Amino acid sequence: MIKLIAQRLAASALILLGVAAITFVLLYLLPADPAVNLAGRSATAQTVANIRHELGLDQPLLTQFLHYLGNLAQGNLGRSYTQKTEVVTLILARLPATLILMAAGIAVEVALGLIFGVIAALNRGGPVDRLVMAACFVGVSAPQFVVALLLLYVFALMLGWFPMSGFGTAAHVVLPALTLGVLGAGWYARMVRSAMIDVLNQDYVRTARAKGISERRVIFRHALPNALLPIIAMIGIDIGQFMSGVVVVEAVYGWPGIGQLVWQAIQQVDLPIIMGVTLVSAFAIVAGNLIADLVAPLIDPRIRAR
Amino acid sequence: MRVLREIARRPTALFGLAVVLTVVVAAIGAPLLAPFSPSEQLFDGLTLEGAPIPPDATYLLGTDALGRDLLSRLLYGARTSLIIGLVANGTAVAIGLFVGMTAGYLRGAVGNAMMRFTDLMMAFPALLLAIVLAAIFRPSLWIVAMVIAMVNWVQVARIVYTETRGLVERDFILAERSLGAGHGRIIFLHILPHLMPTAIVWGTLGIATTVLLEATLSFLGIGVQPPEPSWGNIIFESQSFFSGAPWLVFFPGIAILLTALSFNLVGDALRDIFDPTQRGRM
Amino acid sequence: MMKNWLKRTALAGCIALLPLPALAAGGTITVTYKDDIATLDPAIGYDWQNWSMIKSLFSRLMDYTPGTDTLVPSLAESFTVAPDGLTYTFVLRKGVKFSNGRDVVAGDVKYSIERAVNPKTQGPGAGFFGAIAGFDDFSAGKAETITGIETPDDGTVIFKLSRPDATFLHVLAINFSSVVPKEAVEAAGADFGKKPVGSGAFVLKDWVIGQKLTFEKNPNFYVKDTPKIDGFTVEIGQEPLVAVLRLQKGEVDIAGDGIPPAKFLEIKNGPDAKDIIIDGEQLQTGYVTLNTQVKPLDDLKVRQALNMAINKEKITRIVNGRATPANQVLPPLMPGYNAAYKGYAYDVKKAKALLAEAGHKDGFSTVLYASSTDPNPRIAQAIQQDLAAIGVKVEIKALANPNVIAAGGTKGEAPMVWSGGMAWIADFPDPSNFYGPILGCAGAIQGGWNWSWYCNEAMDKRAVAADSISDPAKKDERAAAWKGIFTDIMADAPWIPVFNERRVVAKSKRMGGAGNIYVDPTRVINYDAIFIK
After folding, report:
1. CA-based nearest distance A6→chain C, Å
2. Is residue A234 within 8 Å of residue A291, measured between CB atoms?
3. Are C487 and C338 in contact (CB under 8 A)?
4. C-chain residues within 8 Å CB-CB of B36?
């Protein structure tokens, strides 16, 4: 097990290095010149050249990349072009907001997923099952930004139950978390349902039932715990999904997280911020996948044997 | 035929198929069906103060912030969604098939390198990558399609890889090999046909993802270029009128949702039909 | 236009004269913006959000009377200009302190300007100081200091110029000339923009990144009875619509990003319009550049035809009437504006005829670049439709601002660029600001902002001549010279001037003061002058 983890950690580090390299090359290809952008309308050619030199943008790509890696090894993501602040500081200042949003979103997903998954499994094949499964499909097919805008319109603008945007109180987190959670809940419900059905067909559950143990006890003591491991694996994968999707939700709700940070940075070709957020997101994805992979052998003994 | 009959037995799949066909008809028949030109800024399509007009007898779904007929734009928008859906997802499936099959068949150093590369792509924040790519290349319909393909092929490659590895071990392939059949012959005559169900399933399910991704990119203003209508950029352009003209978000939103949902339903049904052991699973 | 301006000035005068007991009330207010504040370092900050905050955090030798473009000494008590226009001598006000408690001395002025010019600062403003003697050597790293800035004693600063520069007093009033204390800059390093120390009307108390900034009144500020409020809080990440809704409830006092269209119409037609909406002219022109070095736009007749094909009234309707159609480069409030000039009137027939004369009877195809932020793609589409009417097929490229700037600044790349969302309001209220970077030969370079690539050496000579008229007494002569230059430029039609956008700000009912301190021509929002009723 320890050897497996060590192997996976090494592979993860390589993957992150690859992500850094690819992102760096892509950003280098951008037609926009950060120096021109920074210098503004009234700058002279000399000012632009000076800024380019100070940022090291006049160096060859490889030199710039090695320099970046050198800093990265020391945990230094560089300084933002437009804000001149350490990218690490900017990301750390905004990461808590994104993590709160992510945690709330996952909580909604898991809660809805468990409830509807169990309901569907217990009514397997019946009209309730079909209705729940259809609703799940609607959930996973809905465009995030449309759901976000509609929730805003109904619950904030028309009914006034929740604030329209911003950050700070528990009420602020409800709509963004619902947006993220409702969409993902479909996947969880489907998975919980199939895991439950598998378990309910197992011999020991049949035995338990035959012994006259109450249905509730069968579900909560025997069936449900077996559905939990796949949920943990799924959360692992989900973390990555969230990191990638926060741009839209944070944009619509004015949520002060890293999605908003990177979106503003893209508008201003603030390369160090774009690099930094991409790396942090990739790190979250790799870590999430690692969790999923480590949980997998516990779920299915066949994988452990391999 | 068997497939169609199977679909007909599933009410949800039938519903999906009906919507998909409707979208196809809307896309092909847009010039005949649309009451106005999709890009014409109609003189009476805006109030004198420059506000869009709510749905009425002339403009069945209202007008947008430039005074264009929303219904006409939605119909033409179906074209954009379908073209991008087919081209982007077709490309993604093709790349995924090629990479997955080659890596699974060859294995060894080349196969390993290819799969490590897919691992790498899996670790990329997909939407972020799409946004950066869309910012690098000056966006057009085709560039947006290619950006989406670049992001979406990875999953297909992983699945095809696993399946190919299973196939390579099977007796009939081993038999062909021992008879001295060339790689090309084995791949095209024996492996590819077995992968077709997977390709068809992903070719359908992937369109849903693609439609959503295109809409999202266009919603952020980095997708399809105006005045080409896309369901995503209709919402993008109307966002600032949102509180006064919610229909401009509502109708295209429904269009995106229904289309994505239908491709998901049909794809899911196809997966059931091709692979009954997966029934009821993810 | 002139009458309008007089009226506005007169109004400001009344406000200033009224004894307002309410001023004692002080109080704190809340301002909102959607995007984060980038930096408050005066040598670096250069966007319309931080511009007004930096103005209020720091002081400069020169400043403007609130709400006007009238230059007045500020940190300077008085100044003299030598008759040849090459030597400026400033006497500093005594007893002015930085917020860290130290007295402001002449050496700080010299240090601050050298810092703004120093390439290591990576600031955008260096070019403004090009007229100071020794500038070239310093910015090339050949000299330790700018020799043209002399500080004979703690209370005197002397500037020696290498050429007369009529805009020099304006230059000393822009943010890049703000005075900063060396020790605080060195202590904060590159983070100075997050921990600013100055001697302005306000002090930054707290900054929660991505959420809010808290400004407090500087009790020792040297201008009497300024500022009027005790402080203000800037909340970040607020959608414009949300900000306006909160403003109507009284939770927000100024919605910095303006009012979204749907809400604007609703409020404008509502009972509170007068108390909430401030609609002020600013020094801004929205224009389409016509690349004079790209076929077929290199043909004057084609450019004139395009000028006549645009229905500017219709375009102002797209921004809900929050703009006035323009026919020339300068905005109406700028000295040198030619009120008698008629421009190219909207005339599709004549435009078609001109195109036919130029040999494009069937039109041609071209590309229009525009910023991808609303409403710019919509305006681009309106232009596209107008040009289609004379047979010109336009492909729109709506891109993120930096990509548009890159395309515009690459020779032969962008035939047409819609400036909206990028061309910022003027740096200072002087017509030269609308020439050098965006219409002069100096801007027609790789990475420059002269996207028309219009380079007329005769015009450059006239511009230099106009800027040499530095005697304030000859102000009118200079304005007349600029009026001639811009009128003649329009004969070459390098632009389609589309409209002068007015700035619409929403303020809560309790906020007092004339409109022109909320849409101040040199500050955007003038935090020093606004007050609670």
Report:
1. 37
2. no
3. yes
4. none
Question: What fold is seen in the domain C3-199+509-532?
Answer: D-Maltodextrin-Binding Protein; domain 2 (3.40.190)
pLDDT the model gives residue C287 = 95
pLDDT in tens, B168-218: 888 777 787 777 777 878 888 888 888 888 888 889 989 998 988 888 888
- Asked if residue B98 has pLDDT above 70, the reply is yes
Q: How far is A44 from chain B (nearest CA, A)?
A: 26
Select from C50, C209, C369, C451 the residue whose CB has the most chain A CBs within 10 Å, as the one to mutate to test that interface: C209
Going by pLDDT thresholds of 50, 70 and 90, the confidence category of residue A268 is confident
Flag whether residue A303 sits within 8 Å of chain B, measured between CB atoms: no
Architecture per CATH, C284-501: Roll (3.10)
Domain ranges for chain C:
3-199+509-532, 284-501
Average of per-residue pLDDT values in chain A:
83
Biggest alpha carbon–alpha carbon distance for chain C: 72
CB environment B94-133: b (16+ within 10 A), e (fewer): ebbbebbbbbbbbbeeebeebbebbbbbbbbbbbbbbbbb
Sheet harboring C76-81: ordered strands across?
C76-81, C87-92, C156-160, C149-153
Q: Which of A26, A102, A141, A269 to mutate to test the interface with B (most CBs of B within 10 A)?
A: A141
Which chain A positions have a beta carbon within 8 Å of B252's beta carbon? 146
Beta bridge partners of C98: none
Decide if B136 and A281 are in contact by the 8 Å CB cutoff.
Answer: no
Q: Supply the pTM of this predicted model.
A: 0.87
ipTM topping 0.90? no
**Which chain C residues are within 8 Å of A51, Cβ to Cβ?**
119, 122, 124
Tell me: the pLDDT tens digits for A2-60?
887 888 888 888 888 888 888 888 888 877 788 887 887 777 888 888 888 888 888 88
